[in-house]
Amino acid sequence: MLLPIANNFVAAEDQPGALSHIDTLNDDGIAGILNLLGEHYDDPADAAADADAYIELIEAIDRHDLDCCVSVKPSQIGLDCGDDVFLTHLDRIVDAGTTHDVFVWIDMEDYTTTDVTLSAFEHHARKTNGAVGVCVQANLKRTREDIERLTDVPGKVRFVKGAYDEPKHVAYKKKSEVNEAYRDLITYAFESFTKGKVAVGSHDPEVIDYVEELARTYDTPYEFQLLMGVREDAQRELATDHDVYQYVPYGPKWMSYFYRRVRERKENALFALRAVLS
Ligand code: FAD
């Protein structure tokens, strides 16, 4: 059972509960990005089961006519079992997404997975003419070169600061360096993307202000993406005049995700606790 303390950050344990959360979000003018929680499977049967669950989810999103896409983690659909397992399941999920007109995002995991994830994105983005998106991380030193390569690829690119503790030979370790790299990347994307849409995956008010400034200068399409349970008031305010997506995790494996949110910011724990007590 999903504990009340976790339900600020996780929509539900099951698919109907997750879809009902999206229905409410859509009423507030916010689109959804559903993520079935799960990662690092070393048994191909687990990867296949979650890939099947994503296909069922895509069918349900279409049936309920929701403004919602999905986001999958490579290691959830088999990357730890082999590149071929991941690529086969991703093919199936993207096919279902194209059939049902549901956009498919690929989350980015640690730096050892970047090459295979970006190649898979590029292949599917060109094949579907932009029905998929990928996340790139500002803390990785390679990302500037990666997005230069993606300049004329259709689809969407989500820019985030990076959630993984990477070694210093590949990553910026200081917050100030990551913030500067993030600014540099989104500036480049606004200036240079010819076919893709920029997705800003950040809660940072300075980033959001800066993007609004860029948008006054460039016509590049863009959207904001924020996590469920984080700056929800700001999400609703932004949605009055921007495309806003809420990333919504769900599923029985909610416990480790919830603890990650609490660990990264003590205010999250207090917020969750207050919600339970009130
Ligand atoms: P930070 O740099 O952490 O904080 C900057 C400022 O933002 C803070 O000072 C505060 O003002 C505000 N803020 C931040 N968090 C909170 C909060 N909880 N409550 C109130 N204010 C807050 N990472 C990956 O590595 N791979 C992915 O695929 C990925 N997908 C993501 C998808 C989405 C939609 C989002 C939003 C994030 C994703 N991330 C992903 C996580 C990302 O890399 C960052 O770790 C995370 O977003 C924190 O960085 P930030 O820019 O939001 O703000």
Produce the secondary structure layout.
Elements: H1 15-27, E1 31-36, H2 44-63, E2 68-72, H3 83-100, E3 104-106, H4 114-127, E4 132-137, H5 143-149, E5 155-160, H6 175-192, E6 196-201, H7 205-217, E7 222-227, H8 232-238, E8 244-250, H9 255-264, H10 266-277
Parallel strand pairs: 1-2, 1-8, 2-3, 3-4, 4-5, 5-6, 6-7, 7-8
Helix pairs in contact: 2-3, 5-6, 6-7, 9-10
The structure holds flavin-adenine dinucleotide.
Structure description:
Helix 9 crosses helix 10 (266-277). By secondary structure, this protein is an alpha/beta fold. The chain has a single domain (11-255), classed as TIM Barrel, CATH 3.20.20. Helices cover 47% and strands 16% of the residues. It has ten helices and eight strands. An eight-stranded parallel β-barrel has the order 1-2-3-4-5-6-7-8, surrounded by eight helices. Helix 6 links the parallel strand 5 (155-160) and strand 6 (196-201). The longest helix is centred in the N-terminal third of the chain and has 20 residues, at 44-63. The site of flavin-adenine dinucleotide (FAD) has 23 residues, from strand 4, strand 7 and helix 10.
Give a brief rundown of this model:
The protein has 278 residues and is an alpha/beta fold. The protein has helices at residues 15-27, 44-63, 83-100, 114-127, 143-149, 175-192, 205-217, 232-238, 255-264, 266-277; strands spanning 31-36, 68-72, 104-106, 132-137, 155-160, 196-201, 222-227, 244-250.
